[in-house]
């Protein structure tokens, strides 16, 4: 049986490129194509100042993809390399130069203003949600002082050498994973000053043989310290996800996290409200333990996207402690949907942030 994406690509070969010399597939304009539940999503790269004029091309490509048997919906986005302002083009500090990680497409940071809001749980489940879109995904844990990724993914082993100073990441649920927790015991305290943290993060960025990845999801430590600055200075982050509970105390710190990433020119992909509410399994009654919709209101006030809310569920906690993230468990599809929907929105935001300043349109028929 042929790959449905191959049929979609064949259909898109009927769409001429803007110059009329070839088609949008042969011209290399189509990228990021993924499919899920009979829906197809892809990007069309165009010059930044041509986005408005080429909107008919986007609609035609979307219609062609939707006409393929078995495809129920097609979503196309116009993207382009952003035109940078002098401030954006400049490195984060004098003499610093950002370079990507070889073979890695997008790098997404998952951050929080304070600890205990479910950032690491969000990281692994959103990463699995991105993998469900057909993407090749890696997870990097740079929470040096409190690495949680090994426990959340049920991995406890040592990385193997890859030749020279590099080594292979471990694998869990089909994703490549690296954490300081693989190198030290779970109960070993990391009594390190800032420069040692920076060195460790640099090594995990440069000395790990990640191979080909569409996206690397980075679990950041809470706060706005050395790790955040190192990541924003060393690699071109595609954007940051901010995780917060709806509680006012958590939102105060979430604001600081958003402001920090904006100061270093890292796009805010959106805000996730974790522990949004608790629904009693016996009575079905909802309790807003930490308040409700606080993060959504704050995102609206700050003018950043709201990615979704995740309720406080015992199943998520139990599965996380057991090293089986809820998105990896088929029987928990309803609970996992909170994260998979967030993952879909994140990937759409990544595509938009790579686009022109005019913001490409996403039209849902």
Biggest pleated sheet: 8 strands, mixed
Q: Round the mean pLDDT to the nearest integer and report it.
A: 83
Low-confidence stretches: 81-96, 356-365
Q: What percent of residues adopt helix (DSSP H or I)?
A: 25-40%
Structural class: alpha/beta
- The percentage of residues in β strands lies in 15-25%
Assign an overall shape: globular
Distance between the termini: 28 Å
Q: What is the string of helix and strand elements? A: HEEHEHEHEHEEEEHEHEHEEEHEHH
Overall number of strands: 15
Per DSSP, the total helix count is: 11
Any descriptors?
disordered C terminus; three-stranded mixed β-sheet; 365 residues; globular; alpha/beta; single chain; 11 helices; eight-stranded mixed β-sheet
Give a short overview:
The protein has 365 residues and is of the alpha/beta class. It contains eleven helices and 15 strands.
Could you characterize the architecture of this molecule?
The chain is of the alpha/beta class. The chain is built from eleven helices and 15 strands. The strands form four sheets. An eight-stranded mixed sheet has the order 8-9-5-10-4-11-12-15, with helices on both faces. It has a three-stranded mixed sheet with strand order 1-2-3, sandwiched between helices. A hairpin with a 6-residue loop joins strand 13 and strand 14 (286-287). Helix 1 (4-12) packs across helix 2 (55-66). The longest helix is centred in the last third of the chain and has 21 residues, at 333-353. The two termini are 28 Å apart. The model is unreliable at 81-96 and 356-365 (pLDDT under 50).
């Amino acid at each position: 049986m042929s790959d449905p994406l191959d049929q979609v690509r064949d259909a898109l070969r009927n769409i001429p490129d803007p110059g009329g010399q070839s088609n949008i597939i042969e011209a290399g304009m189509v990228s990021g194509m993924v499919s899920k539940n009979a829906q197809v999503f892809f990007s069309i790269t165009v010059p930044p100042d041509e986005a408005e004029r080429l909107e008919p091309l986007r609609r035609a490509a979307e219609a062609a993809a939707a006409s393929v048997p078995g495809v129920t919906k097609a979503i196309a986005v116009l993207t382009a390399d952003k035109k940078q302002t002098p401030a954006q083009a400049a490195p984060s500090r004098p003499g610093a130069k950002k370079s990507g990680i070889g073979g890695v497409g997008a790098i997404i940071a998952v951050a929080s203003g304070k600890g205990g809001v479910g950032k690491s749980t969000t990281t692994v489940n959103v990463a699995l949600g991105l993998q469900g879109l057909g993407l090749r995904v890696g997870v990097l844990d740079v929470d040096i002082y409190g690495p949680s990724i090994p426990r959340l993914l049920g991995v406890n082993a040592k990385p193997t050498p890859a030749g020279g100073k590099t080594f292979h990441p471990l694998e869990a649920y089909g994703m490549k994973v690296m954490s300081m927790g693989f190198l030290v015991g779970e109960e070993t305290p990391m009594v390190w000053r800032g420069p040692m943290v920076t060195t460790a993060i640099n090594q995990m960025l440069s000395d790990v043989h990640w191979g080909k990845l569409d996206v690397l999801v980075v679990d950041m430590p809470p706060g706005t310290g050395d790790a955040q600055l190192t990541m924003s200075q060393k690699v071109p982050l595609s954007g940051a996800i901010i995780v917060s509970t709806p509680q006012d105390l958590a939102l105060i710190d979430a604001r600081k996290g958003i402001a920090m990433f904006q100061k270093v020119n890292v796009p805010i992909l959106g805000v996730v409200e974790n522990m949004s509410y608790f629904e009693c399994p016996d009575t079905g009654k909802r309790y807003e333990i930490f308040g409700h919709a606080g993060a959504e209101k704050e995102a609206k006030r700050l003018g950043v996207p709201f990615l979704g809310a995740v309720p406080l569920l015992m199943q998520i906690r139990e599965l996380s402690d057991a090293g089986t993230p809820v998105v990896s468990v088929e029987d928990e599809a309803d609970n996992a949907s909170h994260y998979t929907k967030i993952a879909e929105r994140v990937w759409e935001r990544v595509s938009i942030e790579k686009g022109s300043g005019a913001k490409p349109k996403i039209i849902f028929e």
